[in-house]
Amino acid sequence: MALVKVKPTSPGRRGLVKVVNASLHKGRPIDALTESKKRGSGRNNNGHITMRHQGGGHKQQYRIVDFRRTKDGIPAKVERLEYDPNRSANLALLLYTDGERRYIVAPRGVVAGAQLMSGADAAIKPGNCLPLRNIPVGTTIHCVEMLPGKGAQIARSAGASVQLLAREGAYAQLRMHSGEIRKVHVDCRATIGTVGNEEHSLRSIGKAGAQRWRGIRPTVRGIAMNPVDHPHGGRSNGGGHPVSPWGTPTKGYHTRRNKRTDGMIVRRRHAAKKG
Fold first, then answer.
1. How far is residue 243 CA from its own chain's centroid?
2. For 144, which of 93, 154, 189, 232 could close a Cys bridge (C-beta 3.0–4.6 Å)?
3. What is the share, in percent, of the chain residues with pLDDT greater than 90?
4. Cα dist. 144→33, 69, 116, 119 in Å?
């Protein structure tokens, strides 16, 4: 993969920086592993906007990704790498020895032709999936489950990773990229390595139209509105704290209300920043 800054032949291409990966598949995805995706217009059945800044965009198909990795003991070969419009990471198409094909999130360093395995007896190498109880302490992992058998929920985006810090009894401690340390059951599965396509964060869209291709509509600042439309409107918000159009604080306001899993957090990310 490489970052390419294109020639400034137009104002829209002057600031364009794109990620080019020559190893990505140029054709269509596997039809059996795709399903239709409803266009997200951000509106309800009455036509009222219920989710701002959404609408339009290119038609997309959803790729069915195997986040559970349950085919234990069956070797798989990476047939090819593919682009996925629904996520920042690329996908790897696995061809198992029994003939089944499945998509997984492509780890860094995994190329076409690589051999991967899942299960407790799998080797410790990028792309293999094992329970946390079988992974050495200190290993960098991604696509981590939060409940055994539920499927990967942690560290799935491009360049994401988690470090396995320790194991105590039935739980393992993971250090997130934010600095938060969280407990996860040792029967939860994780994939060795880091998610690929790490240059994704370095790209530059280049022009507003490219955001519209992605289904992102314009965002207008509240202070540029009229007082009837936003609390910041009229350029006389009185130096108050930033709020949403409905008056909810938007900076420094705690939105976490999930007390059920508070006991799983060993150290919060905010504590790490203070230290």
1. 27
2. 154
3. 87
4. 22, 11, 17, 14
Answer whether residue 239 shows pLDDT above 90.
no
Q: Residues 257, 247: contact at Cβ < 8 Å? A: no
- Per-residue buried b or exposed e for 98-116, using 16+ beta carbons within 10 Å of the residue's own CB: eeeebbbbbbbebeeebeb
Pair of tokens at residue 51: 């989710």
Q: Which residues pair with 104 in a beta bridge?
A: 92
- 74: tokens are 């069956």
Specify the higher pLDDT residue, 254 or 147. 147
Tokens of 73: 């003991």
The pTM assigned to this predicted structure is 0.90
Yes or no: say if 158 and 197 are a contact pair by the CB < 8 Å rule: yes
Model confidence at 194: pLDDT above 60: yes
Q: Which uninterrupted H or E stretch holds 208? A: helix 208-213
In whole angstroms, give the CA distance from residue 119 to residue 68.
11
Sign (positive or negative) of CA dihedral 176, 182, 183, 188: negative
**Pairwise CA distance, residues 274 & 271, whole Å:** 5
What are the structure tokens assigned to 96, written together? 């198992």
The two structure tokens encoding residue 140: 């960098």
pLDDT digits (tens, 9 = 90+) for 81-129: 999 999 999 999 999 999 999 999 999 999 999 999 999 999 999 999 9
Contact 231, 247 (CB under 8 A): yes
Is residue 157 within 8 A of residue 108, CB to CB? The reply is: no
